[in-house]
Amino acid sequence: MEPGFEDEYDLVVIGTGLTESIVATACSRIGKKVLHLDPNDYYGDLWTSFTFPQLDDWARRHVQLAGGKNLPDNGSQHQQQQQFQSQHNHDQNNPSEKVNNQTSNIGISLSKVNLTAGEMVYPWESGINLISNVEPVSYMINEAPEKQDLDKATEEEEEDVEEADDETEPWTFEKLSTERNWGIDLVPRLLYSRGAMVNLLVSSNICRYLSFRSIERILSCLPGTDELMDVPCTRQDIFNDSYTSLIEKRVLMRFIQLCLELERRPDLIEGFEGFEEQPFIEYLRSKGFTPLLQHLVLNSIAMVDPTTPTQEAMEQLKRFVSSSGRFGNTPFLFPFYGCGEIPQAFCRLCAVFGGTYCLKRTIDGVVAKDDVINSIIVGSQQIKCQNLVCSLSNVPKSLLVPRQVTNISRAIFISSGSVKDSQCAGSLLRFPGPFPILVVESSWASLIAPKGIFVIYAWCDSFTGNAKEDLLPIARKLFNFESGDEMNGKPKLLWSCFYNQATVDCSSITDKYQNLYVTSPPVNELDYDVAIEEAKSIFDTLLPDEEFLPRAPDHDEIVIEGTQTNQEIDLD
């Protein structure tokens, strides 16, 4: 049965990725009527969090798709969307024929389409696939065949040590699949505790829908070795560190104090004269930083390349130092249940203020006049709208102008132990190079995996065009791929998935309709700055005189004015 929508909305949004969700929420928050659709059967699009079975299914479906095999309908794509075939050139020459031929396919007869003079009906074709080179691999032992004719004494012995067996029982694919506590991200992120996302969540009061855990440590791979060390982030960490000498500790402490002073006094330039545009490595050398300190500051604190201009590197350092100690020793937070909770939190607030949501549904066509979309067609319903916001993966190719595409190589690793022997809640690791690789480790402590399981993410700008070729060398540094016990202190790798994700700047990516706004896919960044800035830019274009995501009241602050009297009624 077709869901019934209202006849008119101020804004229609397709895709529940982070950027689209922020725009939808910002508009709903100030009283605009918002219809938010997603052809998938889950929230978040590429920003989602999956259970392990969902992730494995997602990966295998992309493998099948790349192989040209027909995929079974799992409800994640509206079936009517497939009825459209791209007829871009033919339709432009025969617009009236397009209306007659296509209208019946979108479930609405021509007589029911309310067309004014000059309006035309255009089908909304399938979008583009942003995922490629997907390679899931399981390293777990095969399931043991069902045991038969067990000796009774053996059965009794197994019962006596049942608890011990539970603790030492090896992980199998079936065992991982039956676990429920999963939240595996396709696009993992960390949040600077004083970064743009935390500030937005707090100022809008969306933080009430989320919980976070501090990333407990930052790791660094010692130059020339595979050994991982904990990077000291606080005064106590620095003086307890066993890798740095007393002189190095003092140099590092003075430098951190300088960064704190720069945060309080942005105009302070003492000691930086002449270095502002010079490579940061030159500044560090001039201040007597040893090779070890240079490595730590560049790769684990500032997280910049040696050739980065000093002024730019100092901005990154100030960001790191100012966020350190707010909620934990490191500057970073990770959401409980996975990063997919963040777009859902925005969607939740949008719904609170009247936004309408429907999964497994996209639009089937648009009614436009010249370069303006006047209404959309969803199933058998025609809906007027003032603006349309759509994720890139849900925009027909025929509407896009050529753009330079960047590929990000990503990998998800599931292991039975931490990359560095510990039971800590999370780690961040950066491998330097022409294409730096970021590694984020999380575990059951953040409620994203069953107890005893660690989920490790790695990503970088692709330099070979294939995620496995880019990231496999790092995986071999971190994990034991062989069956059996852990070797050389490396955790046993249970399952992995390599994949490439395309990204492109979607500003002005389409010139077909002036009230169509396309959001960009996730980019290669650690926090959410780019997505927030893009969402704010779209909102400011739509509603230039309105406040972007003002604070939402708490439940106990909401009152309703009585219609019969002047008495206010507190909901509590």
UniProtKB/TrEMBL annotation:
Location, primary (coarse class): cytoplasm
Gene Ontology terms: biological process: intracellular protein transport; small GTPase-mediated signal transduction; vesicle-mediated transport
GO molecular-function terms, A-Z: GDP-dissociation inhibitor activity; GTPase activator activity
GO cellular component: cytosol; nucleus; Rab-protein geranylgeranyltransferase complex
SUPFAM superfamilies cross-referenced by the UniProt entry: FAD-linked reductases, C-terminal domain (SSF54373), FAD/NAD(P)-binding domain (SSF51905)
Compositional bias segments (type: Low complexity): 77-87
UniProt key word Magnesium: no
Alphabetically ordered keywords of this record: Cytoplasm, GTPase activation
One Pfam family per UniProt: GDI
Keyword RNA-binding: no
Region spans: Disordered: 67-102, 145-170
InterPro entries in the cross-refs: FAD/NAD-bd_sf (IPR036188), GDP_dissociation_inhibitor (IPR018203), Rab_escort (IPR001738)
Subcellular location per the Swiss-Prot or TrEMBL entry: Cytoplasm
PANTHER family: CHM, RAB ESCORT PROTEIN 1, RAB GDP-DISSOCIATION INHIBITOR
Reported function: Substrate-binding subunit (component A) of the Rab geranylgeranyltransferase (GGTase) complex. Binds unprenylated Rab proteins and presents the substrate peptide to the catalytic component B. The component A is thought to be regenerated by transferring its prenylated Rab back to the donor membrane.
Family (UniProt): Belongs to the Rab GDI family.
Protein name in UniProt: Rab proteins geranylgeranyltransferase component A
GN (gene name): 107365873
